[in-house]
Amino acid sequence: MKTLVLANQKGGVGKSAVATLLAHYFRKLGCRVLAIDLDHQGNFSDPLRKSQRVAVAEVPASALLTQANPVIPAADFVLVPADRDLSGLERQPSLHNDFANHLRGFLKAMDARFDVCLIDTNPNPDIRMIAALVSADFVLSPIQLNQEALDGVHALLNHPRVGVRKITSMLNPKLHLIGLLPVMVEANPFQRENFLQLVQKFHPILIPYGPKPGQYASMPRRSAVAEAQAEGLVLWEMKKTAARDAWREIEVAMVVIAKAVLDGVPTQTTPITPINGADHGPVAG
Ligand SMILES: Nc1ncnc2c1ncn2[C@@H]1O[C@H](COP(=O)(O)OP(=O)(O)OP(=O)(O)O)[C@@H](O)[C@H]1O
Ligand SMILES: [Mg+2]
After folding, report:
1. Domain ranges in the chain?
2. Which pLDDT band, with edges at 50, 70 and 90, does 64 fall under?
3. 5-263, what's its fold?
4. Ligand nearest to the CA of 235
């Protein structure tokens, strides 16, 4: 089983929407999918539940951190749903090591039962995010194309608790950053300028696709995505032409991310090096 965590300390950037699309996409590819929602807001749980395609575990997600050996249904698409207790875990620091160890033990126990585990996280850099990142194989960071988000890339890499560099060097050397995925991209001059800035500063951690250099995976802003998320629909099965058009645009990113996860092949071979004076050292070691 390969475990992919959706993480970005910025709220509302599309983590849950990307997690949901990926969950359905991995199913479309025939994978056995375990979906874990570590955000008490439940924006990964709700659309999956509404889709009626998942077996919903009786144990809530907080139990994966607080209990040893939680039991989940025997099915090929299982959701361990968000619950309120998730938000209280940070306030129990003496148990944080246990929380991380329980989640690690659970994921290990699921290794042969699923092909892919997707973990959606809350935007706070708390024990839930740490526990997920220390046990995961991959992390993917959706970001929006605004100045605040670009400034936030530094924290994503270097945050003292949950920065990808910190986690890979101290706690989980196998964690691989698939990359930054610009989402809700709009074709306006403002976003185009920010995209250029992103490429200039951070191209080693964008997600390349296709044979041409400079082609990086992204997702456009399309109302059909929000609608699918709200209604629990599968984007490519929606009747509207707009939804199918949106899927055609989004599929490119899904293909390259799924390939990185399933093949275990990094999309990036380049370490994160300083570009234009940006202060970013290698992610690993
Ligand atoms: N590509 C897209 N096009 C249009 N709307 C989108 C797109 N991606 C996400 N959205 C919508 O934007 C809103 C925020 O997305 P989402 O909930 O996935 O963000 P998030 O990063 O998980 O937020 P949080 O940090 O609160 O967990 C949702 O209403 C979602 O449906
Ligand atoms: Mg979310």
Report:
1. 5-263
2. very high
3. Rossmann fold (3.40.50)
4. 1
